[in-house]
Write a structure and sequence with these properties.
This protein has about 300 residues and is mostly helical. It has 12 helices and 3 strands.
């Protein structure tokens, strides 16, 4: 087995520990590594990656191949300084999902604090509580907007998400701190409107159901007020839906910190997020530096560092 092939096995193990099912990528990268070995190359280069990607039958497939090589090359760069990481955009695909912003707990707290400064007071409470609930549960923005008053059961500490994406419904358990926050919001909302102006749980300052455009616009203003949350050059600003991604990554981090068997728990996270199967969950598990370092340390302890 060549050095590249050995590194590929380690990389596949790392991705599996992260919660991905790497078999399709592993098979594709196996072909790429064999091509490199056949040509006598011991390092990944941009030219070699492009040549291999060009063998795919469509532009999206070529772009997917480059994405797979890019991840492998980033991993290899830590061992081989001659590795070239293919930059994004070399091959245009018809559809590219934007990279989400992974909010840290400090950033979430800062956004919620900025929301508390909005006027009028009920709108401030709505936005701060909405951000907090999304960060704590990972529900979709549309699911949060549509929550009915009877869907939030504070006594049972649960949210009922009814007929969401693909017609799926689910019950989401709530942490006691989330229950307390929702209870405070409920009391404030009901004092403002003795007679329910809307059947939804979250309402605007005049008691109407939330409008997605108004919420998105307000969220952008909150990000501007939170100077530390700025997108990298050429990247889109963070969006409310990124809190869902952040929840998934935060959950994965906590499982790894506790030493849990992460692959066996992924179906639980998938069901919690309302996905049809775990495969749909993998895209949410963006690799962040803290997560990668944590996984690497666990692998070293379980496997022993390769000399």
């Amino acid at each position: 087995m060549t050095n590249l092939a050995e590194r590929l096995e380690d990389y596949a193990t790392l991705r599996r520990a992260l919660g991905y099912k790497p078999d399709p990528d592993r098979r594709l990268l196996g072909g790429f590594v064999r091509d490199l070995d056949a040509s006598g190359q011991s390092s990944v280069t941009v030219d070699a990656a492009l040549a291999w990607a060009a063998e795919a039958s469509t532009a999206p497939a070529s772009a997917a191949r480059l994405t797979i090589v890019r991840g492998f090359a980033r991993y290899l760069a830590g061992f081989d300084p001659a590795t070239e990481v293919p930059p994004p955009g070399l091959v245009r695909a018809n559809k590219v999902r934007p990279t989400p912003h992974i909010f840290t707990p400090v950033e979430i707290a800062a956004v919620m604090d900025a929301a508390r400064g909005l006027t009028p007071g009920l709108w401030a409470a709505t936005m701060s509580t909405l951000v907090g609930v999304m960060a704590a549960t990972g529900i979709r923005p549309g699911e949060a907007y549509r929550l009915g008053r009877h869907d939030v059961d504070l006594d049972a500490a649960a949210l009922a998400v009814i007929h969401s994406k693909h017609g799926k419904s689910r019950q989401i358990p709530l942490h006691p701190t989330t229950v307390s926050a929702l209870g405070r919001y409920t009391a404030l909302r009901d004092r403002a409107f003795e007679v329910a102006a809307a059947a939804t749980f979250f309402v605007t300052a005049d008691g109407r159901p939330l409008d997605s455009h108004d919420v998105a616009s307000t969220f952008r203003k909150l990000l501007l007020a939170t100077a530390s949350i700025t997108p990298p050059p050429g990247k889109r600003p963070a969006r409310l839906g990124d809190l869902r991604h952040s929840f998934a990554v935060s959950t994965l981090l906590s499982w790894h910190r506790s030493g849990a068997d992460v692959p066996s728990r992924l179906p639980v996270l998938s069901a919690y997020l309302g996905h049809n199967d775990p495969h749909a969950t993998y895209w949410y598990l963006e690799a962040v530096p803290e997560l990668m370092a944590l996984i690497a340390r666990r692998l070293e302890r379980s496997m022993g560092a390769r000399p």
